[in-house]
């Protein structure tokens, strides 16, 4: 699967093993609102809903699918993805993608997308709900009352008004929590190294360092992803620096808080209350924290409202369908976005770019040290990233079976390929042009192409020689001395080898100088014929090409 071609994406069809065209197939492997499956079906995608499978059971069936729609239960590990031989897209109906091995997916050319906003209000509301639960000890009071105890004097709460809320992480969800907390007349401070002072001002919150937040906050709520920097951000040492009697809420990810240290801090009274929706190990069916006074928990319910689940189900199904049917890319973690509206306009450019990359890869091989991709005229109005991805996929596709637009930029970087992007808004000789220049030890070599009728890719220049050729199927690239009679000899050799010529395109640097022929033939060119052609008088180079 070197490149998601028109056949693989955008036509709504896919090749099955018998090379027949079939509908794309999606597996929904976690419990999801039924609207997701309905959307896939409405858009002509086959869908199976198979939930609760073990990793081994999932590995046995995943090879059948083009798309995998998940929430947080399915673990898309490298081991599972090894079996996912047809998979093109993983859609996470939610925000956190820590259950997906992103580098493994990228390396296999699988786009990973999430739905970053569909459940954020719901999760922010859950954090606020837990803050109230802690402030007024609602779970304990409820349990006691329903046990017939009526312990009115046991449950003395605290007001939220005028208290300081410390946000760790003020992104999507953190900023919604801030707005709700400000409505409750709390003072909000935030530790987030990526929060700009302007944004803090706009949110009406104070940006502080972590130690200041620990020292000042009456309530702390966490809203960061789990990364190497945030793991254990509320460590034993950090908890010791908090204001005595602080209350802590975590609706983000388990692993942000040292759970053993939290238990000790609750028992010592340093922390008056803690509410966790997320745990280091999930499902958390046992935890030393369970039963600790002041501890409240929910089973990762942050996103569990009807509204949020409908939002994320619809969004993930639409995004995955757009990708599988039209090539549109929205909210991808490992690929630049490409809207479903942009995708049809970009598609012919991506086909052109892929062919130019493939041409360079086949002619120059391992000599290519870097590429510069220039877009000119109409092409410069478009998103250049997909064009670059397509050039790289074509270039590296000549020696890698696994490269595609998704993993090409990463693979290029890994291989030390220097990639440059240049944009010329003004038209040159053509209304639209893509030029790819490869740097090689022997100097720069450049090919250019345009679109005829805004749709049909054509090569217009190869290494400084003007030609006009459609790149497709089996071809021969021949460089020879421009002498009378050469074309006749070439035609005879091809005819004797039983190879039918489909199209013949010629160009030359100067009369009597170097000439170039691009010949499209109906069948693959046998190696013996290449040798025979190399031996013809005046031939300098013969390269069989496949597109
Ligand atoms: N409990 C649940 O069911 C749900 C949990 N979540 C989780 O909530 C978390 C937050 O989600 P969003 O707000 O949408 O993410 P976001 O990406 O919009 O915000 C994360 C914020 O954390 C900040 N951040 C990153 N590294 C940091 C560090 N070292 N120290 C302090 N701040 C740092 C970022 O700058 C960003 O502002 C994620 O972990 C997500 O997976 C999301 C939805 C539901
Ligand atoms: O799908 C869920 O219930 C979990 C949501 C979540 O954790 C997320 O979106 O990051």
UniProtKB/TrEMBL annotation:
Pathway noted in the entry: Amino-acid biosynthesis; L-serine biosynthesis; L-serine from 3-phospho-D-glycerate: step 1/3
Domain D-isomer specific 2-hydroxyacid dehydrogenase catalytic: 26-334
Domain ACT: 474-537
Residue ranges of coiled coil: none
Pfam families per the UniProt record, alphabetical: 2-Hacid_dh, 2-Hacid_dh_C, ACT, PGDH_inter
Enzyme Commission number, as recorded: 1.1.1.95
Kinase found in the keyword field: no
Annotated catalysed reactions: (R)-2-hydroxyglutarate + NAD(+) = 2-oxoglutarate + NADH + H(+); (2R)-3-phosphoglycerate + NAD(+) = 3-phosphooxypyruvate + NADH + H(+)
Keyword NAD assigned: yes
Signal peptide limits: none
Family listed: Belongs to the D-isomer specific 2-hydroxyacid dehydrogenase family.
The protein's name in its UniProt record: D-3-phosphoglycerate dehydrogenase
Gene: serA
């Amino acid at each position: 699967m070197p490149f998601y071609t028109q056949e693989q994406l955008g036509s709504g069809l896919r090749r099955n093993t018998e090379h027949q065209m079939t509908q794309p197939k999606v597996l929904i492997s976690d419990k999801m609102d039924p609207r997701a499956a309905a959307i896939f079906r409405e858009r002509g995608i086959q869908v199976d809903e198979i939930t609760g499978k073990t990793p081994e059971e999932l590995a046995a069936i995943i090879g059948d699918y083009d798309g995998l729609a998940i929430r947080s239960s399915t673990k898309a590990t490298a081991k599972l993805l090894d079996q996912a031989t047809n998979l093109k897209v993983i859609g996470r109906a939610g925000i956190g993608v820590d259950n997906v091995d992103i580098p493994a997916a990228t390396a296999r050319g699988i786009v990973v997308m999430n739905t970053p906003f569909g459940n954020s209000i719901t999760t922010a509301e859950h954090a606020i709900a837990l803050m109230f639960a802690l402030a007024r000890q609602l779970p304990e009071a409820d349990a006691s009352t329903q046990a017939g105890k009526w312990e009115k004097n046991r449950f003395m709460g605290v007001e939220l008004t005028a208290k300081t809320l410390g946000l760790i992480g003020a992104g999507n969800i953190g900023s919604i929590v801030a707005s709700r907390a400000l409505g409750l007349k709390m003072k909000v401070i935030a530790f987030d190294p990526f929060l700009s002072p302007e944004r803090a001002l706009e949110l009406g919150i104070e940006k502080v360092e972590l130690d200041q937040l620990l020292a000042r906050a009456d309530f702390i709520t966490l809203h960061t992803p789990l990364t190497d920097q945030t793991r254990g951000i509320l460590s034993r040492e950090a908890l010791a620096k908090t204001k005595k009697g602080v209350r802590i809420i975590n609706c983000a990810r388990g692993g942000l808080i040292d759970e053993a240290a939290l238990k000790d801090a609750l028992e010592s009274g340093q922390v008056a209350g803690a509410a966790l929706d997320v745990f280091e190990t999930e499902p958390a069916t046992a935890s030393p924290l369970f039963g600790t006074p002041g501890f409240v928990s929910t089973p990762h319910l942050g996103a569990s409202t009807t509204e949020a689940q409908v939002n994320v189900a619809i969004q993930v199904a639409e995004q995955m369908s757009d990708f599988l049917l039209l090539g549109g890319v929205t909210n991808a973690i490992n690929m630049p976005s490409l809207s479903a509206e942009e995708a049809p306009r970009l598609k012919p450019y991506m086909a052109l770019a892929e062919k130019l990359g493939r041409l360079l890869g086949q002619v120059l091989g391992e000599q290519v040290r870097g590429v510069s991709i220039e877009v000119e005229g109409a092409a410069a109005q478009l998103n250049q990233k997909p064009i670059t991805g397509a050039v790289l996929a074509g270039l590296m596709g000549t020696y890698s079976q696994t490269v595609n637009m998704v993993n090409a930029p990463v693979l290029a970087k890994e291989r030390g390929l220097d990639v440059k992007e240049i944009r010329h808004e003004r038209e040159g000789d053509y209304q639209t042009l893509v030029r790819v220049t490869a740097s090689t030890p022997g100097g720069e070599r450049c090919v250019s192409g345009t679109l005829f009728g805004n749709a049909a890719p054509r090569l217009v220049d190869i290494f400084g020689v003007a030609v006009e050729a459609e790149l497709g199927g089996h071809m021969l690239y021949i460089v020879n001395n421009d002498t009378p009679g050469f074309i006749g000899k070439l035609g005879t050799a091809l005819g004797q080898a039983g190879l039918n010529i489909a199209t013949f395109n010629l160009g030359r640097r100067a009369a009597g100088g170097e000439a170039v022929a691009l010949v499209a033939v109906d069948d693959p060119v046998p190696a013996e014929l290449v040798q025979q052609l190399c031996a013809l008088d005046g031939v300098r180079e013969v390269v069989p090409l496949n597109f």
